[in-house]
Amino acid sequence: GRFVYAGGVANSKSMPLTKDEIEDIKAECFANDVTYNFEVLKDWDEEKVRDFFESGGGGEGSAPSSVVPTDGPDPFKEDMPKEVQWRMNADRTVAVITLNRPEAKNAIDGSIDSGIRLSIARVKCTPSIRVVFLTGNGAMFCAGGDPKGFQQAQASSKTPAPDSDGMTENDKSASAFAQMLADLNGLPAYTVGLANGSAMGGGFGFLCCCDCVIARKTAFFALSEVKLGVIPATISPYVVAKIGPSNARRMFMTGETVNVEKAKEIGLVQEIVDSPEALVKEAQKICDVMLLAAPGAVAAAKNLVRNVQYKPITPELMEYTAGELAAVRKTEEMTGGMAAVQAGKKPPWAAVGKLAFPPA
User: Fold this and answer.
1) Pick from 167, 240, 350, 354: CA 20 to 30 A from residue 189's CA?
2) The pTM is what?
3) Average pLDDT for residues 109-114, to the nearest whole number?
């Protein structure tokens, strides 16, 4: 289908769009049987919108890569670096993102960074995805930041980046990595870290951005940045949220390594398995459980946790939680779920029959 954009807005409005305008566009698209992820419309700039509108939805004006038809060709395939692999099941309900730099212990460099960003974009523009797995190839999940990258960042710490309002390349790369972690943490789908091996530094941070972590019993975990004269700055909000401030202080400041049993004790890991095959079996169990979980409710519950954790019980917090409950009572998901319970049937979102873990 074509994206039918309101001409008056396209030709007179500077971005970003307002919430009401996005709702109008959604209604127009639905009327023309077009399905897109509309959350990213707010990131469009005026030039992209006008070009897209004037071209009628094709050619140079085709939708930017962050807004694509859910049933169209893969616009990310050519850009995806080989250092990150993406696969998705036939129903487009389960995705697996695999760090594929085993010769370097899956250390995070520019290619891994780029691949993760593209994978996040793919998830965002495929609203049918219900579960996302993040894993690694080889003996290690992720060794953290590539030392060469740290050295390059240090060397560029006095060089302003092009078109960056005075920010250096060092500042720019740090800010971009922080945004990527926030995007990973904020995905609406249920995210699961499959720790095929040990995780350090940024790899530890990736796992902390996931909703659940399953790890092999041979895995170890460390935040050894202080031993290199660095700190785990950008990953810190997610680490503290995952393992708590007391455990974070100890791991941040000592740089010690913990085994998988200790990682489970402090809350990083939820399940421990014996082998790669067991890792896949556990992943499929999660898919089976998530089949019955309403996608919208999952996203709302995820956001709820972020907004209430560590908050004191105040009138403001009670007002917020009451508002969330009142809002969810108005959703089509609740209507369908309650009707299914009364009829003794599975809920509408379980109609796909199975959330199959994609084969390698």
Assistant:
1) 240
2) 0.79
3) 93
